[in-house]
């Protein structure tokens, strides 16, 4: 596949009812820096470089349901976050404003919901 144009993932965008509010949550959670801050768009980047995480205000936002059932708004994306201590990371996530999801599909993973309802998973490194 040598004929492919050069492409690199520069970020992931999460929709939210309030971009700044959700960005503030992820800034508390991850400790990343803000590189763009507009009324309806905020971008965070990790200190060591790599793809960023952006937030866009959506005029009509429907909170996803975890896990989704028939007719429920399904998640469009979820984030996997590797941690070295599941209990400490979970306590930090809750203190930052996350909610532990009622359904936990695996013993070694913790599913949390951010303030806009996007699920994210904390998991232990192998």
TrEMBL record:
SUPFAM superfamilies: Glyoxalase/Bleomycin resistance protein/Dihydroxybiphenyl dioxygenase (SSF54593). Residues 8-126 form the VOC domain. PANTHER family: CONSERVED PROTEIN (PTHR35908:SF1), HYPOTHETICAL FUSION PROTEIN (PTHR35908). This is Glyoxalase. It comes from the Bacteria. PROSITE patterns: VOC (PS51819). Pfam families: Glyoxalase_6. It comes from Sphaerisporangium melleum.
């Amino acid at each position: 596949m040598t004929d492919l144009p050069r492409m690199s993932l520069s970020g992931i965008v999460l929709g939210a009812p309030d971009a700044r509010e959700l960005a503030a949550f992820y800034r508390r959670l991850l400790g990343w820096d803000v590189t763009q801050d507009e009324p309806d768009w905020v971008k965070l980047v990790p200190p060591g470089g790599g793809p960023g995480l952006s937030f866009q205000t959506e005029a009509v936002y429907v909170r996803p349901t975890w896990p989704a059932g028939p007719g429920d708004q399904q998640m469009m994306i979820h984030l996997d976050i590797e941690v070295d201590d599941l209990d400490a990371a979970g306590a930090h996530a809750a203190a930052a404003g996350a909610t532990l999801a009622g359904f936990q599909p695996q013993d070694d993973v913790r599913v949390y919901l951010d303030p806009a309802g996007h699920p994210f998973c904390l998991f232990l490194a192998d």
